[in-house]
Each structure stands twice: as C-alpha cells, then as structure tokens.
Write a structure and sequence with these properties.
Elements: E1 3-5, E2 12-14, E3 17-19, H1 32-44, E4 49-53, H2 60-68, E5 78-83, E6 85-87, E7 93-96, H3 100-114, E8 119-124, H4 133-145, E9 149-155, H5 159-166, E10 173-177, H6 189-196, E11 199-203, H7 237-254, H8 258-267, E12 273-277, H9 282-289, H10 298-307, H11 320-323, H12 327-330
Parallel strand pairs: 3-4, 3-12, 4-5, 5-8, 8-9, 9-10, 10-11, 11-12
Antiparallel strand pairs: 1-2, 6-7
Helix pairs in contact: 1-2, 3-4, 5-6, 7-8, 7-10
C-alpha cells in the first residue's frame, strides 16, 4: 500500500481510505460480522485510514469500529471522525451544533464509543450557520493541546471558510465529495486547498454505488439514502446509468472493472487526494483495492472524459433542501 502525506500538516495515510458509513444503515441493512471482517481485511491490506461520523447510526458506527479495533495496535490506525450533525430517536436530521461546548461533548462520547484515548483527525461535518468557524476550530484546537485530538480537518465547506479555519489552526485535509460525476471542487475549492497545503479525502468516489458498475435501477430499499437522492430518481437514473455503460466500455478495454477505473480516475487527480472507499463487504473492498495497480495515461483519461464529460450527470448529488445548507455549494 502506497503511503501519502495528508496535507502539509497531516499524518502519513494509506493512498486509499475506508469509509465506514454504509456499515451503519445509511444504505439499508448491513451485516455486522461482515462489516467487522471488512475492516480487518482493509487493515490487513495496508489501509490505515478509517472514516466515520458520530451520527452514523447515532453512534452505532463508532461502536462497530471500536469492536473491530479492540485487539488491534491503536498506533497503526488513523481514525477520522466527523461531528456536529444532530438526529432524533427516529433518525431524522435536526441540523448542526458546532458550539465550543458541543464540540467538547461530542468528542467525549466519541472517545467512549470508540474505546480510544485520542482521535487522529477530528472535523465538523458541516458549517454551523450559527457559529463562526473560528469558534469551532478554536475549540478543536484546545482538544489538540489537551491531547484528545491529533489533527484538525474540515468537511464540505467553501474557499472562504477554509481560509478562515486555516488562520486559526493548521488544517490537514478537507473531506468532500469528488468523483467523475461530482466535480464541483475543481473550480475553486481544490485550488484553495492546494494553495494552503490542505489535502483532500474524497468520499462518494463511486457516487454511492451509482457508478460502481453494480447498481441496478430500483435497488434502493427502505432506509436507503439513495431512495431520496436525485441522481437515483426516475428521469435521472436512466441517463446516469447510460454514462456508466459508456465507462464500462472504457474499463473493459483496460481489462478492469467500472469501479476500479472510477476510483483510479480520482486517485489520478493528484497525490494530495485520498479516495475513501465505502465498501461494506470484503469482495467489494478487494475490487476497490485493485484500482491501486491501475495506471491511467493521457489516452485513458481522454477516453474517460468522453464517456462521462464534466457535468454530464443528471440530478444533484444531494436533495435541494440539503444543498441549500452546504457551505461548499454556496461558495464554490
């Protein structure tokens, strides 16, 4: 496994990380035993970056990871945790809370659920519109001084917020969606991060399975986020799956899978970009890991661009109500 620096101030991480959200119900039921086995398989393959959020399954995901890591060497694993999103007992989303005292509270519960003494990368999940980013990052910086946090990250924020946060404390990375069908960061956000020496951990590299090569129309069941996602809706999904078929032809010519070429495309955008693979099963993880050995030359990149031109996807990456509250969408 290739190792890279996560921004100029961050730790050495594996060139691919494991995103664990799907193991806690966001995409429908997941198998606990298989989820833990997948985490172990990722660690065995050299992946050291595990990404989660304290609101994934209302703490379930952190407890799952804690169980998976109980016999592992803590220093060999980098835990990236998002905080701030609030949910009710029925699972509904209630907004965000990034006040300094809330930061300290969220962190205390995260440490307990994970069964660890520190978090490697701690980040607000979104910008709280009621709290200056300086206050939130300042609170996390205090936790760095206290030894509970090693590095500070950001998630789904725009250029101005990134600059304001970085003026308070070094930021190692921005976590944000980036894929062949979600390329909005290329205009302003990615250049800002590169100017400041901030890495990118890219989630949604397979657009929640849409461009994995495995998705079938109508597959989203109860409790699956994709049932409400615009790109999976009638009127959009057929157009998007046609793009996948065009990409499949490019992948077939290279002797690889659709998922592998989509992951490799993200990785090819720069060593400062670490794709997060949302595998819930060992077979999907194994397929994703195959992207490491795939080199894309200029002809390959041009063929991929022809198959899925920038902006070709039908539908937004989140429902409009969510996009309206995302700093990364409002500001570049």
């Amino acid at each position: 496994m290739q190792m890279v620096s996560l921004g100029k101030s961050g730790p050495k991480v594996s060139a691919i990380g494991l995103g664990c959200m799907g193991m806690s119900g966001m995409y429908g039921p997941a198998d606990r035993t298989e989820s833990i086995a997948t985490i172990h398989a990722a660690l065995d393959a050299g992946i050291n970056l595990l990404d989660t959020g304290d609101f994934y399954g209302m703490g379930h995901n952190e407890m799952l990871i804690g169980e998976a890591l109980k016999d592992c060497d803590r220093d060999q694993v980098l835990l990236s945790v998002k905080f701030g999103a609030m949910r009710d007992a029925a699972g509904a989303w209630l907004g965000y809370d990034a006040r300094p005292k809330a930061v300290r509270n969220f962190l205390a519960y995260t440490l307990q659920r994970l069964g660890v003494e520190y978090i490697d990368i701690y980040r607000p999940s979104r910008l709280d519109p009621d709290v200056p980013i300086e206050d939130t990052i300042g609170a996390v910086a205090e936790m760095v001084k206290a030894g509970y946090v090693r590095h500070i990250g950001l998630s789904e924020v725009g250029p101005e917020t990134i600059r304001r946060a970085a003026a308070v404390h070094p930021i190692c990375d921005l976590q944000i969606e980036y894929s062949l069908v979600s390329r909005g960061i290329e205009d302003e956000i990615l250049p800002t991060c590169r100017e400041l020496g901030i890495g990118i951990t890219a989630y949604g590299v397979l657009s929640r399975g849409l461009i994995s090569g495995h998705w079938q129309k109508g597959a989203a069941g109860s409790g699956d986020f994709r049932a409400m996602s615009p790109r999976f809706q009638e009127g959009n999904v057929d157009q998007n799956l046609a793009l996948v078929e065009a990409l499949r032809r490019v992948a077939a010519a290279k002797g690889v899978t659709v998922a592998q070429i989509a992951i490799a495309w993200v990785a090819e955008q720069g060593v400062d970009i670490v794709p997060l693979i949302g595998a819930r099963r060992r077979d999907r993880l194994s397929e994703a890991l195959g992207a490491q050995s795939l080199h894309l030359d200029a002809d390959d990149m041009a063929a991929i661009e022809r198959a899925i031109p920038k902006g070709a996807a039908a539908g937004a990456r989140y429902p409009e109500a969510q996009l309206a509250h995302m700093d990364s969408e409002r500001h570049g």
